[in-house]
Amino acid sequence: MNKIGFNVLVWSANMSDELKPVVDRLKTIGYDGVEFLLGSPDDTAYKSIGNFTKDIGLEVTTVFVVGKEQNPASDLAAIRAKALDRIKWGIDRAHDLNAKIMCGPFHSAHAIFAKRAPTYDEYQWSAEVLRSAGDYAATAGITLALEAINRFECYLCNTMEQLTQLVKAADHPNVKAMFDTHHGNIEEKNFNDAIATIAPLLAHVHISENDRGTPGDGQVRFDEAFMNLAKIKYKGWLTIEAFSRNDPDFANSIGVWREYSKPWDIAEKGLKFIKYMSNKHGL
């Protein structure tokens, strides 16, 4: 069975010792790993949490985003240089956490739009930055798993077809792709074609409901998703990414204005759901 993880963003985007009781309970529930956002400025906190998770026998994956002033797809070389520096910082923090995966839509600035379709040059600029980032990630044994996200958060990569184009342009063994069922539910025609398209590059999967609540409680076609992941013999993380208003600053930044499900309900029911679906489809 694939390893199952849980993203702690449902509680907090901040990296601090306050997450340790959460992480400990996730271990008790039965998770194989936890996923953290790389964003908090206190570098020492990452090593502390990394040591704690290692000591209790949990693995770690990470998620990362960049802003307007660190945009890999910018037409300004100075901004692209800042993007590479910021991605390297993220790789360092992932290494501090003992993570082997750094996923997310850091191919471009989150929620920054050009008011037009993406251009060939933007893909090339982003790919150039990601190729250099891949070199740096390789020294730490980390895979960069890029994410296509929905049209309301990004214009460069919304679909697996676009993401495949970008990852192939980056052309680096440490630059791969991920699939998120929430974004795919919005942007893809069907999961069959989407997963088949990204299969050769797939390194990480987020299991996320359409409303970002408990997986299995909403409208995402999870039978189709799990069936096709099994079809391609996917071997990697199945990580729940859900959101709440527990961390108001983070919630406000991503447009989370209400509670979808109680965090521990998501964790407990979500784990059972993933195990059930994995067994059902032979994943």
Automatic annotation (TrEMBL):
Keyword Isomerase: yes
KW Zinc (keyword) present: no
Domain of life from the UniProt record: Bacteria
InterPro entries: Sugar_Epim/Isomerase, Xyl_isomerase-like_sf, Xyl_isomerase-like_TIM-brl
Keyword annotations of the record: Isomerase
Domain Xylose isomerase-like TIM barrel: 23-259
Pfam families, A to Z: AP_endonuc_2 (PF01261)
One Gene Ontology molecular-function label: isomerase activity
Family annotation (PANTHER family): 3-DEHYDRO-D-GULOSIDE 4-EPIMERASE-RELATED, ISOMERASE
Protein name: Sugar phosphate isomerase/epimerase
Organism name: Ilyomonas limi
